[in-house]
Design a protein that fits this description.
The chain is α+β, with helices and mostly antiparallel strands. It contains ten helices and 16 strands. Strands 2, 6, 7, 8, 9, 10, 14, 15 and 16 form a nine-stranded mixed β-sheet that branches. Strands 1, 3, 4, 5, 11, 12 and 13 form a seven-stranded mixed β-sheet that branches.
């Protein structure tokens, strides 16, 4: 075949480091018996994915210039769910508020486990690879509650590993970093910076996701041309938003074919399917030169409404190549979303050890994405630290030559695996 096959790789790792002291109680949101547990779980994850995006983008009033963003809400949510299994009282309720988890916990974790198994089984029947791995790195001398270990093993198939945080925290960090590197095919390195772990660290929870697939409608690299991309940044000032633009040159891929397509007053929506038809990339391209109105309108409900309008038709597509690495400490964002108790000495993770002696100190996330004619590659790692058809219409042109939002989604369930914003495709950091 002369035309290059376009591939997509996704790798994500999430880790949580725990140690410290803690208390609490609150009213508990419960599952809706009228909903399918997997549907309820996916809806919760999608809501978290969009709310996390809005928080990372500084919405509704951004104070920082628009920058590239890329993260894995599925990986973050999965790892946080393992920590949630040990949360009690106020801390447990705040996990529900911030990440939209639901109670009682047992059916929630069963639904999370069923969703993970469904994604794995679905991948085994399709022409793409999707692997999901979980591990718990436990302090060698710390006793962990057996019900907690049984639950995370049963629902998340987590491997249980013992390391010596107290005697050799640096060595433990190297061991965990090596695991993350292996699971992400060495794209995510040094997730745990030197000095992050210390003698009070008691537990690290890691989750890794790897996806590799081919475009159902591949791009021809011989058609790629250098074109202009308008970089648009804005800040909110007293007299309103101030937008600044500049132009950069990018390699622009192109293909004209039948794609899932929709548009509204704010944006064009394009679906780029992968072979097998279960996984897809969805791109939200604003009609304005900037992302202001699109991002301010973006919620889980509007996203669902926009995606419901997709229909197949011929579209002329232009998509830039881009590669960048994104990383962030998510502690401030999660606190802003409502998870305040878990990062304080009043945290209650007594379900993990039987005592109120653990609390979160940080959540680290690092991600890599690459899109080109040969393929698309993406990796992500997260760490949270805790111590102790009528008249033919004109052919639509989807020209992504300005900032846009994209996501990678499992179409049958609606699970959002990755979310990104391309503000400047020439920036690699």
């Amino acid at each position: 075949m002369n035309m290059e096959i376009r591939r997509f790789w996704v790798r994500a790792g999430v880790l949580f480091l725990l140690a410290g002291f803690s208390i609490g109680w609150a009213a508990q949101p419960v599952s809706d018996p009228g909903n399918d547990p997997i549907e309820q779980t996916v809806k919760a994850q999608t809501t978290f994915a969009v709310e996390l995006y809005r928080a990372l983008a500084g919405l509704p009033v951004p104070e920082k210039p628009v920058e590239n963003i890329f993260y894995s809400p599925y990986s973050i949510s999965s790892a946080m769910a393992v920590v949630f299994a040990g949360a009690r009282g106020v801390t447990e309720r705040q996990f529900c508020d911030a990440l939209h988890f639901w109670l009682p916990q047992e059916p929630f974790h069963e639904a999370m486990g069923r969703l993970e198994k469904h994604l794995k089984k679905q991948a085994s029947k399709n022409d793409y690879e999707l692997t999901i791995a979980n591990a718990l790195w436990m302090d060698r001398k710390t006793a962990f509650a057996e019900p907690f270990l049984q639950q995370v093993q049963g629902c998340y198939s987590a491997n249980l590993e013992r390391v010596d945080f107290a005697a050799n925290p640096s060595g433990a960090a190297r061991t965990i970093n090596q695991w993350v590197e292996k699971q992400t095919r060495e794209r995510i390195k040094n997730l745990i910076p030197e000095g992050t772990l210390d003698t009070l660290t008691r537990l690290v929870v890691t989750n890794a996701v790897y996806f590799k697939g081919k475009w159902a409608l591949p791009f021809d690299p011989q058609l790629t041309r250098t074109e202009w991309f308008t970089v648009s940044t804005y800040t909110i000032q007293e007299d309103g938003p101030k937008v600044e633009t500049r132009r950069v040159q990018v390699p622009m891929m192109t293909r004209k074919d039948n794609f899932g397509y929709a548009e509204n007053d704010l944006c064009q929506i394009l679906e780029l399917p992968y072979t097998g038809g279960d996984l897809r990339m969805v791109i939200l391209l604003p009609k304005d030169p900037d992302l202001i109105q699109l991002e301010q309108a973006l919620t889980a409900d509007t996203l669902a409404e926009w995606l419901s309008r997709l229909h197949r038709r011929e579209v002329e597509v232009y998509l830039p190549r881009f590669t960048f690495t994104w990383q962030s400490e998510l502690k401030p964002v999660l606190i802003a979303l409502g998870l305040t108790d878990g990062f304080s000495m009043t945290a209650d993770f007594s379900g993990i050890t039987g005592g109120k002696d653990l609390f979160l100190t940080n959540v680290l996330h690092k991600a890599f994405v690459k899109v080109d004619e040969e393929g698309t590659e993406a990796a992500a790692a997260t760490g949270a630290v805790m111590k102790l058809v009528s008249i033919q219409a004109p052919l639509p042109v989807f020209r992504a030559d300005k900032p846009f939002v994209f996501l990678i989604q499992d179409k049958p369930t609606g699970t959002v695996l990755f979310v990104g914003r391309v503000a400047d495709p020439t920036k690699e950091q």
